[in-house]
């Protein structure tokens, strides 16, 4: 598919070279895809998307929007792109209804169409009780939902969303991901997501770029990047005390079996061997001796932690925790279904050079 956005050798330097926020960044975002931009605090993600929105100018390099250099055709960005900033507080003295209506009207909707779009978005994001409340009196999560509504009004074909689920409760986070997936699926909207929330984003994004220290260290489909860590699965077992199950497990010769103490064991196996391994565990250790069984597969968080600043593959990181296998997660014949993660991962650690310089010298 053709690229809607092309970033070519983009560099952003602050303070006469003292801080390199983006360092020779190149990427292409294809039409109709959901693209994830991941990285720690200070990696330069927000600085990059602000340049893509033409809010700040690069030091070197260029950005093309559907083939046009945005530095020469700045009017094209607001015509084609809806943007959710990390801190969308520019219209805080308006009410929620006024903010959505005004944004839609400024984007070219007639008053009638802007009113209809406002009503639809207020209903979609369940903002009815907040319609007449000033933006400045909203909580963090409420601000995020209003920010999303203003980014969506006018039906732009490209969305750039900086941390869209920050400060939202689990139900609203799920609602956000479903709404974005629906727009992508039904209307072909191209979406760039900037997020720390790796486990949730992994369910939505189709390609991902990982930034560290202002540089792009890896780009690809999640499955491709995870495959670079090895085709292995870790099985974690909690055994019933007093049944000598640990000794039976150790005697099976299934490979890398390790004791974590207190009847807790881990076993690493190849994905191709997973079914046979589970069958042997249930038959020879005994299902009655297994109190709990969990599968852990590589996640985007593992991918992030396994690459250094130059994009080189480091030693495999510990596998991310997933949910236990319940009876509902086994097929009719007892086969194992890999469970989906139930909660978001912890936010990535702070650090790294680069990022956006804020008043007082803070970098993000």
User: How large, in whole angstroms, is the Cα Rg?
Assistant: 24 Å
The arrangement of helices and strands along the chain is EEEHEEHEHHHEHEHEEHEHEEHEH
The first-to-last residue Cα distance is 33 Å
- Biggest sheet record: 6 strands, mixed
As laid out across the biggest beta sheet, the strand order is 6-7-8-3-9-10
The CATH class of the largest domain is identified as: Alpha Beta
Outline the secondary-structure elements.
Layout lengths: L2 E12 L4 E12 L3 E6 L5 H8 L7 E6 L2 E2 L6 H5 E4 L11 H11 L4 H14 L15 H13 L5 E5 L7 H18 L2 E6 L2 H5 L4 E6 L2 E6 L1 H6 L4 E8 L5 H6 L5 E6 L2 E7 L3 H13 L3 E7 L3 H6 L59
Parallel strand pairs: 3-8, 3-9, 6-7, 7-8
Antiparallel strand pairs: 1-2, 1-4, 4-5, 9-10, 11-13, 11-14, 12-13
Helix pairs in contact: 3-4, 3-5
């Amino acid at each position: 598919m053709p690229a809607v956005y092309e970033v070519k050798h983009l560099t952003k330097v602050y303070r006469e070279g003292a801080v390199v926020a983006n360092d020779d960044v190149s990427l292409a975002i294809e039409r109709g895809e959901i693209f994830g931009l991941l990285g720690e605090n200070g990696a330069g993600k927000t600085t990059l998307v602000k340049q893509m929105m033409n809010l700040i100018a690069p030091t070197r390099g260029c950005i093309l929007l559907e083939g046009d250099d945005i530095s020469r055709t700045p009017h094209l960005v607001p015509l084609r792109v809806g943007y959710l900033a990390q801190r969308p507080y520019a219209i805080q003295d308006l009410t929620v209804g006024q903010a959505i209506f005004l944004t839609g009207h400024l984007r070219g909707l007639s008053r009638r169409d802007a009113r209809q779009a406002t009503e639809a978005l207020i209903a979609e994001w369940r903002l009815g009780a907040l319609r007449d409340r000033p933006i400045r009196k909203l909580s963090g999560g409420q601000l995020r939902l209003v920010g999303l509504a203003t980014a969506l009004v006018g039906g732009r074909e490209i969305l750039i969303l900086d941390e869209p689920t920050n400060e939202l409760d689990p139900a609203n986070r799920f609602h956000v991901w479903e709404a974005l997936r629906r727009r992508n699926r039904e209307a072909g909207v191209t979406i760039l997501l900037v997020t720390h929330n790796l486990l949730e984003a992994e369910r939505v994004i189709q390609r991902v770029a990982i930034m560290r220290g202002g540089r792009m260290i890896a780009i690809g489909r999640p499955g491709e990047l995870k495959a670079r860590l090895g085709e292995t699965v870790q099985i974690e077992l909690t055994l019933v005390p007093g049944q000598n199950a640990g000794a039976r497990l150790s005697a099976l010769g299934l490979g890398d079996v390790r004791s974590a103490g207190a009847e807790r064991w881990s076993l690493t196996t190849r994905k191709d061997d997973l079914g046979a391994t589970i069958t042997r565990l249930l038959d020879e250790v005994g299902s009655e001796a297994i109190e709990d069984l969990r599968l852990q597969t590589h996640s985007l968080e593992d991918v992030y932690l396994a690459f250094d600043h130059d994009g080189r593959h480091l030693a495999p990181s510990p596998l991310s925790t997933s949910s236990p296998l319940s009876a509902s997660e086994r097929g009719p014949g007892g086969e194992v279904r890999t469970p989906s993660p139930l909660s978001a991962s912890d936010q990535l650690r702070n650090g790294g050079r680069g990022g956006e310089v804020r008043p007082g010298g803070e970098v993000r």
